[in-house]
Amino acid sequence: MGTSDWDILRKQARHLENEIDLKLIAYNKVGAGSSSLSSSPSGGSSPLDTAPLLGDHVFETLSLEIEQMLDKLSNINEKMSEIPGTGAAVMHVLQRHREILHGYRQEYLKIQANHTTRLEREELLRGSGLGPSSMSSPSTSGLSRRDMYLKENTHLNNSSSMVNDQISIAMETKEHLNSQRQHMKRFQTRMHDISHRFPMISSLIQRINIRKRRESLILGGVIAVCTILLFLYAVH
What we know:
The protein has 236 residues and is mainly alpha-helical. It has helices at residues 3-33, 51-82, 88-128, 138-235.
């Protein structure tokens, strides 16, 4: 597995993180509003009594989908960790993906706990004879808005962290390019030096070739004379 596999897995992780983010927003809204229509304003039953059942069904469906997506994201992070790293920036990015996964798990468990607490409080209020108006008090709605503001702040922090990761990778790439540039400069300097010394080397090689050719001619002449003498000796 190489760089292309790392890029593919990272794109999958980002896409899955965005989907989980959207799912958690819907999950939080369904969990916060599933019990708001538990009864009619007059205290009696109404056709809207079926709304909590539908909300609970959607809540359970989203819960199952988010669990599956979290497990898939965890598997992708494990595959990314198995790829040999190429630098500190890659390890930093991988650690950031793990932190995002941990944050999503914590938020998922928090929404589940809030939903369970809300249902238990609704049962207590219904058992004590209190109406649904107590469920829509300013303090409850204010708490929900505060949670939404905190969630938006978390999203902004995550986006800022991802930008910092990109900047770190760009800086490391720049350092690699500068290092390659220095190597190329040194190589060009060596080639320049060799080109200046080349005429001297060419002259030396030419003299060596002339001497080798002369020695070859001498050796060929000696062999020819010896061959002729041997032939004459054989004939006589």
